[in-house]
Amino acid sequence: MAAVQDGQLNLEVEKDIKTEITNDGSGNINANSSSPGSTSSGGKSKSPAGSGEDQQTLLAVLQFLKRNKLTESVDILRREAGLSADADDSPVSESAGAGSGGVPSVGADGGDANSLLSRVSIATPVAPPATAPPKVVAASGGEDQPDVNVVLSAYSQQGDPVLYPLYYNGLKKFIESVLDCHRAELSQVFYPLFVHMYLELVYNNHENEAKQFFEKFSGDQECYYEEDLRILSSMSKKEHMKGNETMLDFRTSKFVLRISRDSYQVSCLGKPEMSRSLWQLTITYRMLSYQLLKRHLQERQNNQIWNIIQEHLYIDIFDGMPRSKSQIDAMSGSLAGEGKRDANKAKVFYGLLKEPEIEVPLDDEDEEAENEEGKPKKKKPKKDSMGSKSKKQDPNAPQQTRIPLPELKDSDKLDKIMNMKEATKKIRLGPDNLPSICFYSFLNAYQGLTAVDFTDDSSLIAGGFADSTVRVWSVTPKKLRRVKSAADLSNIDKESDDVLERIMDEKTASESKILYGHSGPVYGISFSPDRNYLLSSSEDGTVRLWSLQTFTCLVGYKGHNYPVWDTQFSPYGYYFISGGHDRVARLWATDHYQPLRMFAGHLADITCTLFHPNSNYVATGSADRTIRLWDVLTGNCVRILTGHKGPIHSLAFSPNGKFMASGATDGRVLLWDVGHGLMVGELKGHTDTIYALKFSRDGEILASGSMDNTVKLWDTLKAFDDVELDDFTAATGHIHLPENSQELLLGTYMTKSTPVIHLHFTRRNLLLAAGAYNP
Amino acid sequence: MAEERRPKQCTVVLPTESMKAMAESIGVGQLQEESCAALSEEVSYRIKEIAQDALKFMHHGKRCKLTTSDIDHALKLKNVEPLYGFQSQEFIPFRFASGGGRELHFYEEKEVDLSDIINTPLPRVPLDVSLKAHWLSIEGVQPAIPENPPPAPKEQQKTESTEPLKAVKPGQEEEGSIQKGQGATSAEAKGKKDGLMRMKPRSTHELSVEQQLYYKEITEACVGSCEAKRAEALQSIATDPGLYQMLPRFSTFISEGVRVNVVQNNLALLIYLMRMVKALMDNPTLYLEKYLHELIPAVVTCIVSKQLCLRPDVDNHWALRDFAARLMAQSCKTFSTTTNNIQSRITKTFTKVYNKCWLDDKTQWTTRYGCIAGLSELGPDVIKTLILPRLTVEGARIKAVSDGPVVSNIDKIGADHVQSLLLKHCASVIAKARPLPDNVEQYRADYGYLGPMLCSHVVKARAQAALQAQQVNRTTLTITQPRPTLTVSQSGIGGSGGSRTASIIKVPSSLTLMSTRPGTPTQLSPPATKYIVMATSSGSSSTQQVLWMAVLLFLFSLKYPYYGKSNSNKQVNL
Fold first, then answer.
1. Is the pLDDT of residue A694 over 90?
2. Do B11 and A755 touch (CB under 8 A)?
3. I want to staple A645 with a disulfide (CB 3.0 to 4.6 A). Which of A70, A333, A524, B93 is the partner?
4. Cβ contacts of A752 on chain B, cutoff 8 Å
């Protein structure tokens, strides 16, 4: 260890001085607080305190300097330490977490942070083994991925690998011995701890110990982490850690745990010998809990676990009763723990936008009145209620002009009128009135069907295929026609009434058209609401916009360099969202070749994307097993929803925008309250990945389609009614999920070896399903 | 905390031998053991990584089967050149080779003559993707049309018959049952209420008018004189998903029919009825357990009855016995459980009868033949324990008939048939069980009169086995360019456990015999289960007829070549 630090000293003398100051300062402060295990001056300290505390002291120094108006020094120090600017503005307790969290975020001056971290990291009292890596940090300095190195360098502190299982076991015993009600909460710490201890062993080249450690304790982990454990298990060498995405996820993001304050208070009472000095440092209970846990670990003379908790875990304390095991299980499972509660605090305007008023329906109705006598009387009140609804502004709705939306064209208005007319003929669905399902089977697709979409009026169906083609079918008697060529178009009398008919080339009429252009399997497909365009996203990294007038490609949107898993048009057209393997969701406008917004935050592939019905928000589901809701206006992530145990493959918003449903490879459908950011239901029944979800036009029924060759219908009215939302649950987000999947299940319809990959409710509430027949 | 331990995940690593083999294939001769170990760990890790990425492509491709293109795409993600030459194959046939203490799995790359490829006519263009709509559900009720799965899946019938008290929810997962839509016309209308009345005890079996019509048509066709119609009817019975409710009627029809026709020695009708049994058993949507009490006695009658035809010296009732014996064996295999114990009960029945004829010289050769056929179809174990010990006695009896004064032609034919039956079944068993050398004298001592003939049969059987083994051997000795990467990746994929085909195509049962034997007549197209979907009933009947005829002809030609020649139309002249 000393050798490493000497190397650093030679390289960066100046910086070393700075850090020395830091350590001196920390020494002073810790002397004041008379903490026995604090660091002393100089880098060669043998104190048992971890780097986490050094971070803390660093912050304390920063505040001290600030108070004394030494802004220059503050700046320098902050730059040296690589702390984010806001870190020192928050109270110490907050910044303890944020400080170390800030480390990975410094991409530019990663080298500095490197040196700093290696400086403050201290060998534990137990003798470092002979196999210690001689030049951990220095060796990785020249890599082209500074991020990784910063992250990895955190592992340079190490203990005796033989003791790791003992540490882990010790903690296990400690947690098993606490009261039942707290055990479930505290045992959340096992999994992240296990992962980091394993990675630490691997990083320090203790391959065999790592293997043993894994074999010994991997069986204890919750079964829904199995996928991650498999990835972990394949990593047995330090070299493997470079470039491994899952590993990076673990390193760069903090694993979030939610633990009730109660749990901590109880464990506090259990430790009466709490040192007074620690109290002085602690301002909130969270800090207290840290110190308590730390104390427990110090008694056992190791701070490995403590370091890990400090650096890689974020513990979110809430007021109230500790959660039960089932409650925890419902929420956990994502790659980085649960969402932080404050991540879901932002207000979401989930209401619908006001429908533009269209006068035309009236004369239209008159027409109908002439045709069918007696009917208009029935219809009138309906129309009125609709009208009044659209006039009243929903208090939860965003401002009409919050994001600029395209203006309605005449054709759009016509379509709206059609829509309203159809809507009046809509069947009211319910448990006693199930929809009919029409199934569109793709024959001879040879396992190549990868995506399907219907237009809103159900007149066209499009399929994306593994052979890079996109095919469009007309499912009405009206055939698909191209617009005539430019030369022919010039001959047309533009004044004639049927000019729209005349521009179409009758010779090209056919039931289906094939669109060529992609160079890889097409994974996402979406019609524009006006049926003039079609979007497709592909393995080749592009999103293409196709015209359904000329059946040619108009634009290829490049930006994702990796496969684009899904794309979706906004319900108002013009905007669209795409997401893929590069973990960034992009918001585009059809007339811009560059994205308008980039939504970054997911820790793994974005697997599905969806616009909120009011077009102000975008939901993305990811392979990191979380769903995020993004604000289109600000680009902020406003919701992080955790609870799925597998990659999410389908999303659906209820028509009123209030609820969301999501389906994943774990075969479960979860229901969410968008406004509160809460899980409000769990629908179990499918046995395989759910690829399709759709609410009926009135939102009473949710249809789900799955790889297990079934379509299931669920009673969502009942599901949302059963949930009692009091203030407490709304505040904490901990809800007792009713176990009523079987009651909510209204029907199961088996297909004949045809996985269901898309569902769509027509405007009259007929359910359309699609999938490829797999003989 | 999950209590149970998951299987060790971190220890799966490629063997170092693979590394050596790969190194050799690219021209690196001596690779040190340590480098091998280091390499294998690295390679294993990379392969796992790629397999995990490939799984993503599989999921997004909405498949549950990992393909080679998924792996190519995963490689592309990592900026690695994809593996060329593995596209568009259902699976890659790896061959195994050993030699010099080393073992290899490799992908054989044949040398291809370009002119051959140029000269062969173009393959037919695959059918284009098309879209077809059908009603999956009408106001919450699933209509029973060929596009939808059968209303009462086989699994459900099974659970109902084995656990009648346990209520079963409709719409459970069933194995990929693929039926031909043909013939599913009138029988479909009833399926509607089926889903809802599942809980009701099925004491009454009321058939709708359509079903009654269908039943009448089918039974008439099955025993009528028109072979084309019969073939179609049997095909319908074997594939139609909606026969569940008519099963009791069919079962009674068959058992009554056998009872009457045995007395009247009407061989043709007995054959038709047995074919019906077979068709019922072949239907992937039916579970016959509840009706075995009627079917088994009928089948057994057709095996061991003294007389099945009017002219025992001319008619080939032996074929019927063989056919029925195989049916018996099949039903034993399918339906024998610990509770009903069919296999042992059947064996006991046969043994009892056989014991009787063993003791009693007067028993008809026909019954004796039936017993032996029935027993020997039950498998080599049965042959070994029950038939082999009696070969000597049986041989003496055959000798008495053939050498002795000509008693009657019937006895002689019977003895001949028993002899060939014994030789056929025992030879293969002996070939497996008995150590070399095959000494004629020794055989004579062990098996009496049949010994020498047995010996020659055994020698023949051994030779055939050796020939097959040699073929296998030959392939293993050719070591061409190995393709180690894919060998590995396959195991990697297996380990990650995502790739499995959704539907398992049912292997045709042993009775169909078609695909298992070489030299099958060319008009035998792949098993009927392969045709699927929306083929309308018109037009397909002729092919089915051919198919069925071919099956039966083939069946008979196996043993009785002269019957194979008698042409299609009338099975009755058997």
1. yes
2. no
3. A333
4. 147-149, 178
Half-sphere exposure of A240 (CA within 13 A, CB side): 29
- pLDDT tens figures, B200-211: 444 445 677 778
Beta strands in A414-459 (DSSP E): 437-443, 449-454
What does the alpha-carbon distance between residue A115 and residue A150 come to, in Å, rounded to a whole number? 9
CB contact under 8 A, A471 and B126: no
pLDDT tens-digit readout, B527-539: 333 333 333 333 3
DSSP structural state of residue A141: T
Q: CA dist A124 to A96, A155, A593, B469, Å?
A: 21, 13, 54, 65
For B248, the token pair is: 């009791």
Task: Give bridge partners of residue A546 from the DSSP assignment.
Answer: A534, A553
More confidently predicted of A392 and B231: B231
What's the predicted TM-score (pTM) here? 0.62
Q: Which residue shows structure tokens 């145990």?
A: A645
Please say whether the beta carbons of B373 and B320 come within 8 A.
Answer: no
For chain A positions 202-231, those within 8 Å of chain B (CB to CB) are: 211, 214-215, 218-223, 226, 229-231
**Helix then strand then coil, % of chain B, to nearest 5:** 60, 5, 40
Q: Is the CB of residue A476 less than 8 Å from the CB of residue A550?
A: no
The residue-averaged pLDDT of B31-57 equals: 87
pLDDT in tens, B140-182: 888 877 788 876 666 666 666 655 444 434 443 333 333 333 3
Best mutation target among B136, B141, B192, B531 (most A Cβ atoms within 10 Å) is B136
Percent of chain B clearing pLDDT 90 (strictly above): 1
CB spacing of A769 vs B136 below 8 angstroms: yes
Question: What is the rounded distance in angstroms from the CA atom of residue B225 to the CA atom of residue B309?
Answer: 18
What pLDDT, on a 0 to 100 scale, did the predictor assign at position A617? 93
What's the average model confidence in pLDDT over A271-285? 35
End-to-end CA distance of chain B: give it in Å, rounded. Answer: 69
> What pLDDT does A436 receive?
92
By Cβ distance, the residue of B44, B137, B503 closest to A749 is B137
pLDDT in tens, B44-53: 888 888 888 8
- The answer to whether the Cβ–Cβ distance between A461 and B138 falls below 8 Å is no
Neighbours of B303 (CB within 10 A): 31
* Angle CA A737–A738–A742, to nearest 5: 130
Torsion of CA B431, B436, B441, B444, to 10 degrees: -30
From residue A458, give the alpha-carbon distance in Å to each of A454, A757, B131: 6, 16, 14
Kindly identify which residue of chain B lies nearest to residue A213, measuring between CA atoms. Answer: B10
- A599 min Cα distance to partner chain B (Å): 21
- Highest mean pLDDT out of A189-198, B41-50, B192-201, B397-406: B41-50
The number of C-beta contacts closer than 8 angstroms across A and B is: 192
Q: Provide CB contacts within 8 A for A546, sequence distance 6+.
A: A470, A515, A517, A533, A534, A535, A536, A552, A553, A554
Chosen from A186, A213, A234 to mutate, greatest number of chain B CBs within 10 A: A234
Tell me the sheet residues that pair with B95.
Answer: B106
| Cis-peptide into B437, omega within 30 deg | yes
Using CA coordinates, name the residue in chain B closest to A427: B139
Q: How far is it, in rounded angstroms, from Cα A200 to Cα A193?
A: 10
Strand segments, DSSP code E, in A595-647 are 597-600, 606-611, 617-622, 626-631, 637-642
Contact B148 A223 (CB under 8 A): no
pLDDT band at A260 (very low <50, low <70, confident <90, very high): low
Q: Rounded CA gap, A699 and A100, in Å?
A: 45
When pLDDT is cut at 50, 70 and 90, the band that residue B355 belongs to is confident
Q: Does B489 touch chain A (CB under 8 A)?
A: no
